[in-house]
Amino acid sequence: MSVKRLPALLLVSALTMALGGCTTLRGTGDMGVVIERASGSLQIIDTSTRQALKPVTGLGDLSHASVVYSRDERYAYVFGRDGGLTKVDILTANIDRRIIQSGNSIGGAISQDGSLVAVSNYEPGGVRIFDAKTLAPVADIPATFGNGQNSKVVGLVDAPGQRFVFSLFDAGEIWIADMSTPSAPLITKFRNIGKQPYDALISPDGRHYIAGLFGEDGLAMLDLWHPELGVKRVLGNYGRGEEKLPVYKMPHLEGWAMAAGYAFVPAVGRHEVLVVRMSDWQEAGRIAVHGQPVFVMARPDGRQVWVNFAHPRNDTVQVIDTESLQLINTLKPGKAVLHMEFTPRGEQVWISIRDEDRVEVYDTESQNLVSTLSADKPSGIFFTSRAHRTGL
Amino acid sequence: MKARGAVALLLLTTGVPVAVANATELGTQRESELIHLLRQDCGSCHGMTLKGGLGPSLLPERIGELPPAFLINTVLEGRKGTAMPPWKSMLSREEVSWMVEQLQKGIPHVR
Questions:
Q1: CB-count exposure of residue A325 (10 Å: 0-12, 13-18, 19+)
Q2: What is the pTM of this model?
């Protein structure tokens, strides 16, 4: 080798190192993250090989953490309980940016065009909006109501038209924030929507925003094609006169199931999944299940709905056939099943089992166990396919 | 049979305060289960570090000075009009009073 060629060689190896030492190109469509809630870390995983690739640590308090993805599916925005917002590069397994944006937060969303990230807060309440690239603050929306009290904000989702929609737990209100001019959000408020909305979801087409109510029976529904019609009550008579069981864990509506023309809803304080016909928003049935449902999630093709349950019955997962509305299987993955996530086209589902320190992967058709991964107190599982779905 | 069961239950419930005169007699295994429950299950509303979430903070700064009887009653019976459920079907009064004692003085290494 001649001496003259050496600098070029050095340059090449320096470049390789600058790219993280990674010489193999890969896409991110079969990647995701598993939150390890107790250790403030996450594992980057591959859904094709069903393996953990790399851990990322230093993410703060990740109890009740959630994740949204940039539309290039490279960055995971992790919303921590301690108000931390961390932008993780899942290709290099590095923290790209991290800020503490409030004292106590509950979840977040990314805007339709991918340029803004919004975080909903418990303390001091309200919604804060950041530049998705830099995490620089863009707008602050305090959730002030009544005589100047601040409300905890739940059920924050993105909606078409560069909007965010969210619910005020303490105020019983739903707000729409139009972010067309990022520095000057245009807020539309809907009051008296029901007592204590605890979470909400938006239908996959981005048309219907639905908040579950804890303080009374039923759901509050807003048709975003016709906001002028106001918020309507759905299943208002559901459970009237029946005594509720104590609720040891709030259900979630984020992964709410809309399949085969029905919406499948966790019943609050009851061992039931409610079935709502979406054509007229009337009750179409109730399915008796193992415990109080927490997540009720449809397989991407809508043929099955998988359900997990609240403490103390949280060792079980049940599978519902959406055509017959019958239970078709009951699985016992282990103590404290916290979350489920389907692969993009639904042939497998990943299930986190907190107290067993593992994640299990099931074939959805046979419901047989396919793989097991170890993880430290795993909670939420989030795949990059969420990047292109409204409300996720 | 039914009557005998009731008598046995009565003996058991009245027997408990005597047997558990000292809170540490819950046993270390049960105590560590209760700490796990505090972090993971109470934590699902109050935050895993117990500094608050949907429910208020349970750190000594906030609840340290409150009457223990009030806190014990809140845990056992729940609070109407809020999301706090009653835990009496799962926890005994002795267990709850031990948990309240731990919360009021602060639990080390709650992460």
A1: middle
A2: 0.87
